[in-house]
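Can't paste images in this forum, so I'm doing it all in text. The chain is below; anyone willing to post the predicted structure tokens underneath?
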Amino acid sequence: MKVHIGPYRRNRKISVKIHEYDCWGLATTLAMVIHPALVEFQKQEKNGCSPIFMGAPDLNEHDHSDKAIKIGQEKFKEILDKMIWSFNQLSLDEEFDESPRCPSPIRVDPDVKQANGCIRMGDRYYQDGALEKWRKEIKAYDDRIQEGIDLFAKYYQYLWD
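Text version of the structure:
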């Protein structure tokens, strides 16, 4: 993938080239772009805050005080932190065995046919109950990632300053 977006102005130059291999794991490819963009966006000083983050149900009655803006900016920062964490996790280019998605096996001598109190899956052994614990941990991990993705979708149109 190659992306060039020139400075913001009328008729700015935009060039995007997507290769076939970029689409094989498109979620990871896009996360590798979204994560650093969100990090940079969060670093930039904000000049204001969208009214949606200041808790105003009716924009006509909205409090535009410095205090309300600061509270809104803090709320948005917390939301951005969750998005950034999620896209960072999705952008990691790890081997499966090193990923949180892979339970840690117990190292057992390959000549052993059965290990006491362990479950064998393929060439790996796991302590009894370890896989159920891992399933719960990975569900919590996946749910946390999904929360950041959902927030990204929900607040996508508010990624401006």
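The longest strand covers residues 2-5. The mean pLDDT is 80.
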